[in-house]
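Contributing new records

If you add data, match the layout below exactly. Sequence lines come first and carry their own label; structure lines follow with theirs. Keep one chain per record. Anything else will be rejected by the validation script.
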Amino acid sequence: MGQETPGPIPRILFDVSEFRGIERILWAYLSYLKQLPASPKNVKRRRSVEQIQQRLAAQLSPRPVKDVQLFLTLDEVQEVLEALREFALLVQRFFPKNEEREGVIETVNSWRRRLTRIIDEAGS
């Protein structure tokens, strides 16, 4: 009583190369986080990003990878979205504007839009 019956888990379709890209972004963002002062918020975010990154890396480690299944809580999805957003901002800030930089930012933002749209649809 009082508990909602969980709905279907949304299936987010990315190909393996996209998951590899997301994993590398999480790895790079984690390196950035490790250089920030150790506040409780930063420590919590580092742990969360590190756990997600390691789980995704483990899924991608066997060769060849045919399918990736990574079950994330809503909080973990929010953490991935935040990491992707922050990564795009860091690339924008630290790299000179050129076609390659803009392509990276657009790819990251397209992944964010896809994740957000799927999560929004699942919540409706």
